[in-house]
Amino acid sequence: MPVSFPEQENSLKTYLNSHSDDQRQADLMGEVLIGVTLDDEVTGRVSKYHAHAGAGVLHRAFSVLLFNTGGELLIQKRSPEKITFPGYWANTCCSHPLYTKDELETVNSAGVKRAAIRKLTQELGIAGELAEDDFTAMARLYYRAESGNGWVEEEMDHILIARANVTLTLNPNEVASVQWVSRAELSDLLKDNEALIAPWFRVIAEQLLPGWWSHIDDREALKRLADKRIIKA
């Protein structure tokens, strides 16, 4: 039987009361995410805490791949304060649309694009430099990955590509560091046995990105390459 949202709120309060050591990350666990089915149909509200704790709950997410005009991809190392996969290399920005009218909207992937703009500002300080029309929705990826210490990621990940030269102001509670990388540099990172790579980013980088990278300067070509199916990792 699904856990009701009031029950979720009670377990969240318990978590918040016991994790005052990092109040900023704990507070984010109170965000209300979008629970979905394996067909990406909305099932209801789920707290970020309940979505990631224990067995977890499948929920909607997004991954941004931001390229500059030189053709380099911006990647980030997740802060050691992150609840899941701390210190791992990942794509430019990965987070969740919230259970709000604006971010639930699915027409032209508007909701996830708005969420991406919000989180790019919050994590990387990219403010006012990207609009919804700058993003191309490329695919949806379903994956599940255990993070350890009782945490899990199970997401319907909407992958977005954008291209812009931006000014960065990192939020250290979210992002430890960033790099602009070429295809060759990313390939070397993925082959480095000592590098921690977020599981969703490895799937994207190894299975999907190679077919997209050479077309990042051609929006129409990217749109033709967009896959409407749900890809399962």
From TrEMBL:
Which residue ranges does the record assign to the Nudix hydrolase domain? 57-203
Which pathway does the protein contribute to? Isoprenoid biosynthesis; dimethylallyl diphosphate biosynthesis; dimethylallyl diphosphate from isopentenyl diphosphate: step 1/1
| Keyword Isomerase applies | yes
Q: What is its EC number?
A: 5.3.3.2
Q: Which UniProt keywords apply?
A: Isomerase, Isoprene biosynthesis
GO terms assigned for molecular function: isopentenyl-diphosphate delta-isomerase activity
PROSITE patterns, A to Z: NUDIX
Give the enzyme's main class according to its UniProt record, as a single word. isomerase
- SUPFAM superfamilies on file: Nudix
The record's annotation in InterPro entries points to: IsopentenylPP_isomerase_typ1, NUDIX_hydrolase-like_dom_sf, NUDIX_hydrolase_dom
Task: Output the superkingdom of the source species.
Answer: Bacteria
PANTHER family this protein is in? Answer: ISOPENTENYL-DIPHOSPHATE DELTA-ISOMERASE
- NCBIfam families, alphabetized: IPP_isom_1, PRK03759.1
The similarity annotation says:
Belongs to the IPP isomerase type 1 family.
Can you say what this protein is called? Isopentenyl-diphosphate delta-isomerase
- Report the source organism: Endozoicomonas euniceicola
